[in-house]
């Protein structure tokens, strides 16, 4: 079966021996193709292939300035004319000007990830706020980049974020003022996933997060490797929106059995399906409390790795009738 070119595909007088592939077949081929191959080859085959290629979320990763310059010089025109929906992950080895030139051609990105060790935060914020996303950006990820509070405010006032569903700000040295901007932003009403791990988030910040109406639709919350203590967990458990949470990450917090008990003894937490408490100080007694809780029956994924749970604690988890829906668990006996 032959594949038609742009001209042949829409020529009513074309030879009858040519026949288009069905759309679902093309889509299936594209699903298992490398993003760069789709950009360089598939999008140029015909209008039919281009149309189906634009339905595929592409991942375009740059790992070095040389590679970026080569891609830009070789495919600038193709990228400018064809890319409508892509994922961009920018690494710290790229020059601002090169990345900026490429990004100017991306008009309907659904995901932008910025890992910037060397670029200034002003350049990071400038690139994100100046891109023309046509209000389709769904995920924004910034890591390893110091974000001053006024730049967080600037970022969260950008209309590009009004459809954002997933926000990741890890290792960005967030201050309480920046957290407050997040909690009060009017553009994050659709946010479903929030990751503020590896920041100096305190119990005061936790209280703001717990009371934020902006974050009322968040179902996935990651606060691992922060400075949250027991009072912060109490604030979270008292949140009017706690029933929305299905996934909770609280690893690397030096939590003990008391903090775990505060979580699993709360009847409003019975919607939790995935809980990650790795690298804390939870002992065997904590495992027993978890196993006997009547509010953990929806949990399907549990991570208690690298705690201080001994063999008896592992047995509590394994034999618990309240954890009968558990499908994936990580518990390493402490010796």
From TrEMBL:
Coiled coil: none annotated. Pfam families: LRR_6. GO terms for cellular component: cytosol; nucleus; perinuclear region of cytoplasm. The keyword Iron-sulfur does not apply. GO terms for biological process: nucleocytoplasmic transport. InterPro entries: Leu-rich_rpt (IPR001611), LRR_dom_sf (IPR032675), RanGap (IPR027038). GO terms for molecular function: GTPase activator activity; small GTPase binding. Keywords: GTPase activation, Leucine-rich repeat, Repeat. This is Uncharacterized protein. It comes from Naegleria lovaniensis.
